[in-house]
Amino acid sequence: IKSKLLDPLKDPDENVGGFSDPDLDPISTTDTVIALCDAGILKNVATEPVTRPQRFSELVIVVDFSKHESDSKFNYSHIVQTADHAKAQGIKFPPIDFKKLLNSPPKELLVFESHDDDCPTVLWFTLCTKEFRNLEDYKPRSSVKPPDDKAFTDFSVFGSGTSYGTLNFSYTDYQFDQLRELMHFNVTSNIEVVKTHLAKAVEKKKRRLQKYLSKI
């Protein structure tokens, strides 16, 4: 087994090296333990695999499970890191008002778009519970018996006492269903926004193809 860092700006074929490539580092096939590096050390959300120019992406949908201080206070610095890293790599990312973003309250969906046809629009979904917790008589897609009298939507994702801490690796079926239903709601409640940007992406694709064909 060999490993190699891929250059997101290169054509995919240029990133494919043979086993004789001197830049490849061998990984043992006999060791019982192999140490791997979590990409989250650099930043929580890596969009480069789908935003690099060779992908010709018009719309990118991110479902972000990054940790925040509490349900009422989000730290969006990881989005800033994603945008900055893309820029450093020469990859286009929609413009962001960093100051405004960092002072923004939690939202279920953040939309980043550019007037540049070669820059994809990014729809960024979060684990914001603001709207979900205020739902009345919500009927979840869950057959698990509630462990207490609290409403299905009444739970915290972030902060002290949460069941979803970074170092918690096991969840009850009920806790899993709550998190799943939260993200399902956050996406489906914004489905019209998604449809609008899908339609825009189709038109953008047409313009890009026309521009490409005009050069042939």
From TrEMBL:
On the tree of life, the source organism's domain of life is Eukaryota
Where are its TM segments located? Answer: none
SUPFAM superfamilies hit by this protein: FabD/lysophospholipase-like (SSF52151)
Q: Name one GO cellular component term.
A: cytosol
Question: Which GO MF term does the entry hold, naming one?
Answer: calcium ion binding
The GO annotation for biological process reads: glycerophospholipid catabolic process
List the InterPro entries.
Acyl_Trfase/lysoPLipase (IPR016035)
Its name, as the record gives it, is: PLA2c domain-containing protein
Q: Which organism is it from?
A: Ciona savignyi
* Organism taxonomic ancestry: Eukaryota, Metazoa, Chordata, Tunicata, Ascidiacea
